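This section describes the prediction task in plain terms. A model, or a person checking by hand, is given the sequence of a single protein chain and must write out its three-dimensional structure as a string of tokens. No templates, partner chains or ligands are provided. The sample shown here is typical of the held-out split.
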Amino acid sequence: MADKIVVIGSLNMDLVGCAARIPVVGETITGHTFFSEPGGKGANQAYAAARLGGRVAMLGRVGSDDFGLKMRANLERVNCDVSGLLIVPDVSSGIALIFVADTGQNSIVIVPGANGRFSPENIDAAKESLAGAAWVLLQLENPLPTVLAAARAATRAGARVILDPAPARSVPDELLTLAHIITPNETEAAILVDLPPANLNSDQALAIARKLQARGANTVIVKLGDQGCLLVSPENSQLLPAPTVKAVDTTAAGDVFNAGLAVALSEGWDLPSAGKFANAAAALSVTKLGAQASAPTRAELNDFIRGTA
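The expected answer:
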């Protein structure tokens, strides 16, 4: 049986508008498609990991509203354990306003709602949920003290932490040290070392990864979009190319990557093989609209990998 994966993080209801392009500041344009679906970086990773066959539990907070009920039910449908997903009374669930261009690029505004009420004390109260976990997935949509408390609790429980430092912000060195693997995309990687966001080549990504390792990070995987990912261990580095696909919507591709990485590692794969598996999962996800709706099943991903081999 695969090792247990615990995701500690955010849940947002995604409200998605699609248009030919993303409007600039002060501009109103006409879109052509709207839909809503459960999202949030934590829930996306939990949902995608469960779809890929992982044994997954989710810890987080939702509001006492219909959005909260729908997000909880969506995770239950893929057999994700939601016993650690609790309701905060009289608070709205988190929402994300997402604008998707026909090129597949997106722009997102998040209103945290109940996610902002997930406190370090809640982590301490949920320590039993971490029992037996091999991998714990964290992101930065919850308050930073809560994320740090979760990393400490996971380490005490003997689990290894995969930190997705998104949305990008400054983080303490302790959090980098507690993470077994950190997985920034190119924008997040630059921000973590106080550089302006930019498209990175592999040499630039390697230089940033080494700076993060100098601050205490262990393994750094820089997600480079259609270039794939750069896997940087303390000893060496390796560029893992991504399959070529036509992108429809890049929303949650990074979350699907982390889910795929965790599932493969939970099944005992070595890190380069897990990175290739994660690359394929993320690539397949961008061929569909939506966040959780784009997460592939294990059977779909296996067929895709066979077709690109």
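For orientation: The CA atoms of residues 222 and 230 lie 5 Å apart.
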